[in-house]
Amino acid sequence: MADAVDVRIPITLLTGFLGSGKTTVLNNLLKPSFWERLLRAPPLTAVIMNEFGSIGLDHQLVDNTQGTMALLSGGCVCCEIQGSLVPTLKNLWMGRRDGKIPPYERIIIETTGIADPTPILETLLRSDWVAKRHYLDGVVTTVDAVFGSGQLDQHFEAVRQVAGADRLLLTKTDLADAATIAQLESRLASLNPAAPVVQVQHGNVSPDHIFKLRAYHQSEPVKAKQWLAAENFRLVTGGSPLKTSGILNPSAPLHTGADGRIRSFSLQFEHALPWAGVAEALETLAEFCSQRLLRMKAIVNVQEYPGRPVVLHAVQHLFYPSIELPAWPDDDHRSRFVFITADLDEAFVSQLLTSFTQTVTTSPRDTFGA
Ligand SMILES: Nc1nc2c(ncn2[C@@H]2O[C@H](COP(=O)(O)OP(=O)(O)OP(=O)(O)O)[C@@H](O)[C@H]2O)c(=O)[nH]1
Predict the structure, then answer these.
(1) What whole-number distance in Å separates Cα of residue 342 and Cα of residue 365?
(2) How many A from CA of 11 to the centre of ligand 1?
(3) Which of 15, 44, 208, 218 could form a disulfide with 104 if both were Cys (CB 3.0 to 4.6 A apart)?
(4) pLDDT category, 2, cuts 50, 70, 90?
(5) Which among 127, 73, 120, 70 is positioned nearest to 100, based on CA atoms?
(6) How far is 26 from 47, CA to CA, in rounded Å?
(7) With a 6 A CB cut-off, is 16 part of the ligand 1 pocket?
(8) What average pLDDT does this structure show over 131-150?
(9) d(CA 206, CA 208)
């Protein structure tokens, strides 16, 4: 689990609504001149697109028989997803192993503009073959400074992309006035308080905002605390009795992105919690409200693991393997959960966690694959 022994290849998921500047960011990152200016060697990067022809890179095919691989001038490998993601990753891996393509060090997957990135995350997590050789480093979402607000109003996919992000790149800030940018930044901060927002013009963004985020592998206590950013979320205390489903607009489909339906909030618990109770509460949420659970992260003081807080996170129904930290980041040993939900009553979530962690005391710890 420690970084030093993790030889798997990091995958960055680059997502964002149609035309929001994903390819522009990607093109910039693949340019050798960009890295020369930074006085850094460009990492060998394999790029996977899931939209044929959406990138105007000047490349030269190296494996025309399969029609999927290309060697880019910057030493990058590019392919379009043909079929599912797993065969594409296998093709790349075998080409790399057999020396047919350069030994890429990382992979960027650019999603289509209207894609919900969750199925890609699911593939990365559920395929044993993929998970043994790769890990998800982070989700980076581009948001158009000019049209982003309207897209968030009209398309729930745009909201999902923002809620699932570990970094938000606010693009085209050269085209928007300061007031529009400030308004959108504050909206993004309320939709996803944990994701730093970085302004970007013409794709010019520091690679440090894209690579090595370790968003799904927070094994260092202090970084895990920053990653959780619980202090940026509205703290919810107490809760309603569990009489309802917790769903606020049961008949309203999740097609529009009105911000009033999105809740970002945190819960905290003073005492250590039984692992089985935490697992059961989160399983229940995932089972009954998965579409409405856009993102969840937590650092939990588990009764059975004193002194070793457990990091958890989920995107919709997908729970990632839990990670035990070697120590707490500081003296604050309370369990903290942060949630971004759609039409899900925060008081209900609070009560669900409270009630499960008070009633369940023992069970093997296997739910989140620690
Ligand atoms: N002025 C300006 N134009 C930009 C910026 N970033 C991207 N663009 C332009 O916006 C348009 C869309 O950018 P893309 O990078 O193709 O966006 P995308 O998200 O990859 O688009 P799709 O793949 O179609 O979803 C292009 O014409 C870019 O040149 C920016 O920061 N400033």
Answers:
(1) 29
(2) 22
(3) 44
(4) very low
(5) 70
(6) 9
(7) yes
(8) 93
(9) 5
ipTM of the complex as predicted: 0.99
Contact 19 CB / ligand 1 (< 6 Å): yes
Measure the CA–CA gap between 170 and 168, rounded to whole angstroms.
6
Mean pLDDT of 210-215: 84
CA gap 139, 13 in Å, rounded: 5
Query: Residue of the nearest CA to atom 24 in ligand 1?
Result: 19
pLDDT, residue 249, reads 64
> Looking up tokens 């920053």, which residue turns up?
226
Question: How is the chain split into domains, by residue range?
Answer: 3-209, 221-359
Q: Is 175 in the pocket of ligand 1 (CB under 6 A)?
A: yes
Phi and psi at residue 114, to the nearest 5°: -110, 15
51 Cα nearest atom in ligand 1: 23
Domain 3-209: what homologous superfamily?
Answer: P-loop containing nucleotide triphosphate hydrolases (3.40.50.300)
Query: CATH 2.115.10.20: does it fit domain 221-359?
Result: no
Give yes or no for residue 24 CB within 6 A of ligand 1: yes
The more confidently predicted of residues 63 and 351 is 351
> Beta 167-171 vs 134-144: how paired, if at all?
parallel
Stretch (H or E) spanning 163 = helix 156-163
Rounded CA separation 140/108 (Å): 10
97 alpha carbon to ligand 1 midpoint, in Å? 34
110-129 per-position pLDDT tens digit: 877 666 777 777 778 778 89
Q: Cα separation of 289 and 309, whole Å?
A: 26
Compute the mean pLDDT over every residue in the chain, rounded to the nearest whole number: 80
CA of 20 to the centre of ligand 1 (A): 6
The residue type of 364 is P
Residues in the chain: 370
Q: Which atom of ligand 1 is nearest to the CA of 24?
A: 15
Q: How far from the centroid of its chain's Cα atoms is residue 52's Cα?
A: 24
Give per-residue pLDDT as tens, 242-256: 556 666 666 665 555
